Amino acid sequence: MRMTPAQAQDPFYIVKEEIQDSLQKKKKARLGRHKDGQRTKSNSKFHEFLEMDMGRGATTAEEDLELERRLAKKLKVKKGKLTGPDDGINTLFEGLFSEIDPDHEMDYESHLLMTAESPVPDKKKKQKRKHSKLHAEEGGTDDEAGTSNADKKEKQKRKHNKVQSGGNTNEEPNSSEDGKKKKQKKMKKAVEKETTEGEETKQENDISEDKPVLSSSVNTKYVPPHLRATANAESEEVTQTRRRVRGLLNRLSEANVESITEEIAAIFRSVPRSIGCQVIGEEILASCARGPRGNEQYAAVFGAFVAGLACLVGVDFSAKFVASLSKIFEDEYSKEDSLSLRNLTLLLCYLFIFGVFSSELIYDLLNELSKRLTELDVATILTVLQCCGMKLRGDDPTSMKDFVLGIQHRVNEIKTRPCGSQDDKSKMNSKRMEFMLDTICDIKNNKKRTKEDPTHHTRLKKWLQKLRADGILLRGLKWQKLLDPDKKGQWWLSGDLAESSENVDFVATKISIEVLETQKLVQLAASQRMNTDLRRAIFCIIMSGEDYLDAFEKLLRLDLSGKQDREIMRVLVHCCLQEKMFNKYYTVLASKLCSHDKNHKFSLQYCLWDQFKELESMELNRSMNLAKFTAEMLANFSLSLAVLKSVDFTDPVQLTAKRIMHFRMLFEFLFEREESLVWNAFTRIAGLPELELLRSSILFFVKQYVVAANKSFTGKFKIMRKALDNVAGVLM
């Protein structure tokens, strides 16, 4: 080709043309060498390897086939598998080249053609293949017969090859060319046959993959027949809820108990209450009972979690959870699983510590255990006393005294038994029994242990105080009542009334009496000018409360919002002033409300100021009750003397005879207390500069009207004067 002037000046084009010319020359030389059958010697090891591989391809293929035949004969290979007993080695030959079978005669080149091509199989060949498979399966039952037939076929083929090789040597080159063509046709037929077999085996494999395989090696958990119905009965929603709750409980700790409680409370509200109580309760008990040896911190976190969740979702959750806990406790006790029993006992103790139920239930459990007093009972009693013994003593000293006397009586019975068994002797001589008796003596003598330090778990207690956990306390629970399967309705609110179901007449009369009392209270509220439903409800709760705690819990359950809670203190003070004789019940209830919420304290202060304005027209009995009520609130430090700043004790216009008599009774009731209380009460207003006028007016009034009328209060007056000058605020 001629180059254009532009191409002649381009150096890259010239180099490109030279490379193409050299490549074409090499290609022609290579083709010429193939035609002439001449080969030049290679200059490198790579060329030598190619020459060896390509030059002796036919001979190496025959050698390989001969070696394969020998191995197949020795290994007894038939149709790509080892005949004889199946010892698992056939799995190693799956997918390998099946021409090691001596029934097939294919060389290396046919194998390459077979892997490169995949013609479509004919229907007749498929049928032949299936027919041959059936014959092979029938004949394969006897291993020895199969191997002998294979040997006979191999000998016949060898003789046929020898005859052909002998005949081919005496024939002319034309006959050799015809033989080559025949061989090529045979090779093609063999390739087509193998491809059809390959596709059939693929189809069989696909069918076998679609079919379910039942093998004993699959690791599936066995489910007993009586549990299969319950396992399949749970819906997908319940399973998903259980999985979410389990994941959150696995991450529960003291640091994140607030956030996890809120998340689980949201889950509880999103499902039916019965399912929520069941799922969450089961997961908590599974985490506590079936886990390893739990420590007190672990039980404390779960106890606080149950108390917090009861504050958020309702008391019914904690009641049902305690009932489930008692059932599992009895089951583990029957199994004598001490590890699980200790974990459940710790959880039960911390539920009591965090105010889920009262001490009555723990004392009932201790009495049940002390009746048997086995080794497991002793261990459980010891766990309870170590965890919450001092709190039990503080809540109900009388019940603790009865429990200690019962234990001592039971121990003396075992000791003085004339024909005691070996088990009784081992009980008394065990170190655990001795340690339990020492612990009981320490609790009896009010010796605190390090485990019961009240500073423990302060963070959890503060969090529960924010949630107002005082309103979830369950009262009147008994251990046997929790185990009763016939509990119906809101059994946790009915108290002891549910236990008297046998005596229907007694229950009916008691209900009728309560109804009559309620009607009387409603009429009394109307006579006391309780003109709204809210005031009537508060009046009935205060007047019908068994004690101040019962009234306090019922008032909290009213769940008043906004300014409605102000009515509580107004109704309470009104009821106190209406009594013929002063009743300290109202001051204790008012102190409890003030300590619970500061809003009640401010409401009480404004209510007293309103009452001070009405002193001139107030009856003497009401005035005396008001003076005693105010003095009691000052004495228990629910209020301070700053509540009197609305009164000017130096103004002769305001100090009428009724006012002087009222405040004189107030200070006399206060001076009747001990000196330390008088000092602390007046010290609370000593360091405040804005109360300077109040301090001077109180000194003038006490000196002029109290001490002058009763000289016995002179010593208390001196203490009061020093306390008012106590600017440092040092308490006595």
TrEMBL record:
InterPro entries per record:
ARM-type_fold, CWC22_splicing_factor, Initiation_fac_eIF4g_MI, MIF4G-like_typ-3
Q: Where is the composition biased (Basic and acidic residues)?
A: 34-54, 189-212
Polar residues bias locations: 163-173
- Nucleus: present as a keyword of the record? yes
Ranges of residues in domain MI: 533-649
Q: Which SMART domains match?
A: MA3 (SM00544), MIF4G (SM00543)
Among Gene3D superfamilies, the record links this protein to: 1.25.40.180
Q: Tell me which GO cellular component terms the UniProt record holds.
A: nucleolus
Please provide, alphabetically and separated by semicolons, the GO molecular function terms listed in this UniProt record.
RNA binding
Q: What keywords is this UniProt entry annotated with? A: Nucleus, Translation regulation
Recorded hits in PROSITE patterns, A to Z, give: MI
Q: What is this protein called?
A: MI domain-containing protein
Record organism: Rhynchospora pubera
Q: What is the lineage of its organism?
A: Eukaryota, Viridiplantae, Streptophyta, Embryophyta, Tracheophyta
